[in-house]
TrEMBL record:
One term under GO cellular component: cytosol
This protein's name: Methionyl-tRNA formyltransferase
Gene Ontology MF terms in the entry: methionyl-tRNA formyltransferase activity
Gene3D superfamilies attached to this UniProt entry: 3.40.50.12230
Any coiled-coil regions, as ranges: none
Pfam families for this protein: Formyl_trans_C (PF02911), Formyl_trans_N (PF00551)
InterPro entries xrefs: Formyl_trans_C, Formyl_transf_N, Formyl_transf_N_sf, Formyl_transferase-like_C_sf
Keywords: Transferase
Domain Formyl transferase C-terminal: 206-305
Annotated Formyl transferase N-terminal domain residues: 1-169
CDD domains in the cross-refs: FMT_core
Domain of life (superkingdom): Bacteria
Length: 315
């Protein structure tokens, strides 16, 4: 089939590489210009560079809504558009242009975690598995019929980076197998159960701010979800920003006020956590590694030389 590809960052790069390695003919690539957004500088393999290396015409757009782009796409005469990590809405006259419509490849197990940053949100929320879904695009974002879906388990110590590597390796087989089904003439696929759908926004630095009223289990997953190269989870101590690089749920249960620097346990220092911490029924978050505003990395016990005082949400 003749394929037009829409994509960006490493997800788009892997998709384009899979298409270039396949039996299909990539005739045009549409990608975004480089961005300085903190999350878009991560996993930033260039779709444009890969296309140009293989002699495929590249169109740079923030949004695919101009007449020139539409005419260029019509001239490309695609059988299908394949999209992965395209960051803005694709209008119906674009996604419906090819004979077989548009196949979107999304890094979640749809219908859950439509939208943005699905791996980070899934890890924070304690999901047992994540994955990649290839679905046919319609007017509602990430809501079209599922052509193919593959899942991988979330292990107890997985970080968002671990989940990225697990799922990015699914892109090539999911994309090529889904295209094979479409090329074979199959037209009936799995409708999404919209009663199970969830939709998440883009992440920002604000979303990495620690709220000590969260349960320790949730905070520990937040720290794992915000592992390098993502911006770290952070809190404030004595008015200064403190990044939490590693933490575990405490063995003991600790009561009091959320954010209280309370007790040395193992290699960490326990912070009281949970909205109902006053009951004494909660585990705390044992911080094992931090980074200061000055860039020094220390163990929890090296940094917290005395117990008492509070970690806060704001300076």
């Amino acid at each position: 089939m003749r394929v037009v590809m829409f994509g960006y960052q490493t997800w788009g790069h892997r998709t384009l590489q899979a298409l270039l390695d396949s039996e299909h003919d990539v005739v045009t690539v549409v990608t975004h210009p480089k961005s300085e957004h903190v999350y878009e500088k991560i996993w930033s393999d260039s779709v444009a560079d890969l296309a140009e290396e293989h002699g495929v015409p590249v169109l740079l757009r923030n949004r695919p809504d101009d007449d020139e782009l539409f005419e260029r796409l019509k001239d490309s005469d695609p059988d299908i558009i394949v999209a992965n990590n395209w960051r803005t809405w694709i209008p119906p006259h674009i996604f419906g242009l090819p004979r077989h419509g548009t196949l979107n490849v999304h890094d979640s197990l749809l219908p859950k975690y439509a939208g943005f940053s699905p791996l980070i949100w899934a890890l924070i929320n304690g999901e047992s598995e994540v994955g990649v879904t290839a679905h046919l695009m319609d007017e509602e974002l990430d809501a079209g019929d599922i052509v193919l879906q593959r899942a991988v388990p979330v292990e107890p110590t997985d970080t968002a980076t671990d989940l990225f590597h697990k799922t990015v390796d699914l892109i090539a087989p999911v994309t090529t197998e889904a295209l094979g089904l479409i090329a074979s003439g199959q037209t009936e696929f799995t409708r999404q159960d919209r009663s199970r759908a969830s939709f998440f926004h883009k992440r920002s630095i604000e979303d990495s701010r620690i709220d000590w009223t969260w349960p320790a289990e949730d905070l520990q997953r937040l720290v794992r979800a915000q592992s390098a190269p993502y911006p770290s989870a952070y809190t404030f101590h004595k008015g200064k920003r403190l990044e939490v690089l590693a933490a575990v749920v405490s063995q003991g249960r600790y009561g009091g006020t959320p954010g209280r620097i309370f007790y040395r346990e193992g290699d960490g220092v326990v912070i009281v956590a949970g909205a109902d911490a006053r009951t004494g029924r909660n585990h705390g978050l044992a911080i094992t590694r931090v980074r200061t505003e000055e860039g020094r990395e220390l163990t929890g016990t090296e940094y917290f030389t005395a117990m008492g005082g509070y970690l806060t949400t704001h300076p």
